[in-house]
Amino acid sequence: MINVIKYEDLGGADHGWLKAKHHFSFASYQDPNRVRFGPMRVINDDIVGPKTGFDPHPHDNMEIITYVRKGAITHKDDMGNEGKTGAGDVQVMSAGTGVVHSEYNLEDEDTNLYQIWMFPNKKNVKPRWDAKEFPKEPVEGQLKPLVTGFDNNHSDSLKIHQDAVIYAGRVNKGKSVKQTIDRDQAYVLCSQGKIKINDTEIKKGDGAEITELKDVEITSLEDSEILFIDLPR
After folding, report:
1. Which of 118, 146, 169, 230 could form a disulfide with 139 if both were Cys (CB 3.0 to 4.6 A apart)?
2. Total number of domains constituting the chain
3. Which domain holds residue 190?
4. pLDDT digit string (tens) for 178-194?
5. Residue 178 near residue 215, CB atoms below 8 Å
6. Domain containing 78 — which CATH number?
7. Contact residues for 113 (Cβ-Cβ < 8 A; gap 6+)
């Protein structure tokens, strides 16, 4: 089953410096039917204005993944970490026993990113932060695993405390990728372009919940960028 979550139906807020769209209940947007999907609690599609950002604030016991779509975000935390993550790249943070961090767009243009939060499968871990640059060329055949659980032996991925995999990649118009759901379900984000999942179309900004399927074929109807999140229940 493929359930499309249209961009125009997402919750959201406009704070001036931040324009946010929420795939799940968050802050002032609350929908009892849209609280989580497996361990995934948050997907925020954020546009952060130039020279603005999220002031220092705390988190604990949450795995927080940031996928930058345009521009860049600069991270700083009370563990002494600092780094800038650019378009097509990813940062991860295990909040664990507690961390205070800030995220600023120090660029001269808008930064567009996905914030993805997951409940961890191991509580009260030592907080950590990591980031990685990934190849930007279009993929062939399959999307690439960018984020995996610590038990996954994929050596090139960032790690989180959850049995989930976040695949991503750019797919040229007319090309297809085949993805197997190794866990129980998947959530697909169309970051750019327009795609077809089996026979179901989604466009830029849309999401799709996939349940009761083990294999899907994703075809780019335009040059597209895709995130495919394989999740337990």
Report:
1. 169
2. 2
3. 144-231
4. 999 999 999 999 999 99
5. yes
6. 2.60.120.10
7. 46, 48, 66, 67, 68, 69, 70, 71, 73
